[in-house]
Amino acid sequence: MTLVVDRRLLLAAGTFGLAALSTPGIAQILTARGFTHGVASGEPAAGSVLLWTRYVGSGETTLRCEVADDAAFTKVMGGGEVVASPAHDCCAKLTVTGLAPGKWYFYRFIAPDGTKSETGRTRTLPVGDVSRFGIALFSCANLPFGWFNAYAHAARRDDLDLIVHVGDYYYEYDYGHYPDKPMPGRPIEPLNETVTLADYRLRLASYRLDPDLRALHRNFPMVAQWDDHESANDSYENGAENHSPDKEGLWSVRKAASQKAYREWMPVSDEAYESYQIGSLATIFRPETRLTGRSEQLDIGAAIKGQGDIMKALAAFRDGPWMAAERTLMGTAQEQRLYKDMAASAKGGTRWQVLAQQVVMGSLKAPAQIAQLATSGGDPKVAAALMAIAAASKAGLPFNMDSWDGYPAARDRLLRAAADANCNLVVLSGDSHNAWGNNLTFDGSPVGVEYAGHSVTSPGYEEYLPAVPPADLGKAMQAANPGLSFVDTSRRGYVSMQVTPDAVKGEWHFVPTIAQHTVSGTTSEARSVNWGQRRFAV
After folding, report:
1. Which residues contact 380 (CB under 8 A, 6 or more apart)?
2. Which of 35, 335, 382, 442 is the most exposed place for a label (fewest CB within 10 A)?
């Protein structure tokens, strides 16, 4: 339908934190009435699925939802009523039950005046024996960096059944900060950093206007979980690197605001932990690794600052704080639930145990020559960081303390649980902006593989080491990390997997550019794991 601007809302925008609206086009759309942001679906099960839309009326509005097995809605198979309320930023979510398993459905919402939303397509999860299931994996979509061509490419495919988004769906930074020079035509709101509930809602609203993201949501159900940028960079249970209590208030208030806005705007349940059963083929586990029970990240720089003998300080750090058993990403309760559920899945005869979580799990140490890989004349801060990373690597330490590498005891517990349960583990990850294919081991034995996805738009190593050929950096990384089967440090895109009873074939898809709106020239690199082998096939 054509959106009609409510000028009263525009005049009242300041009351709701919208006074900073800066771009005329986006301001007009964000203050529109009616169905403003398309449709979305998620949380699929064998007989149900969660459906989402947003409708701005004069107050609370009761919408009717229709579900059919054809786009013409010849026969309505289910649906119900749901209220779009200003209390939830006019977002409406409805779980439709009584559906048939393993089936594609079409759905739409209808307003009291008869206007209709866009038509969405979704599907329920299959039961019994399943011969094939397609999954796409996404993370790290920073809108001002460029076009969401990865979303556009996936949205057009006919071999996908489910989208998995493992976080950094949007970014919290103020406009003009990461990136310093935003791409023209990729505006976001508000211009300030997101701190309040109104800020987070508005940032989500501006992202959800992107046509490729809307198409992805319209065409497939999504399983999603936040990472750090949906709240603040490098967040953990009790704080974040990008949060200053003296300027931005209590972390608990900001965290709660970010969680509320995310759950309003995304087709997700309110559960931190969930699992999804794909017949006898696979169980997908979706834990929360960021805000529920994560210990604060360690800081190698702080450990060596002011120390005369850097290597001695690094050894003390390695053998002490880094290996501390109490450090965790998920918290004890989630850990125990995940281990129990993985064991039940494997014991019940499910072929694959798929862990969809946020950060890279494989061990990644920097090559010893990392500082020499960068030519002179670069950023002095980057050079200093590279020197510290090189020293840490020499001491046997990884370079990213925000990933599972910063929580080795917790990783060992998880991999031991997978090994003890005889799982065929496939880990899905994001966060790092680069592509990694890791063989995961415990006590020297293979446990599973990891498809760590590159970003939709956020820059990777090519941003910080522009003088280093990506192929050279990749070879050096593989030489330093025996478990690293695949790496790409310079391109954007997404991962897709075709899961069968005998194998999982995963492909890293690389879009040609994010500077133009195109998917022409997209290329792919593949790795497969055969059932029972628990490592990538050579």
Report:
1. none
2. 382
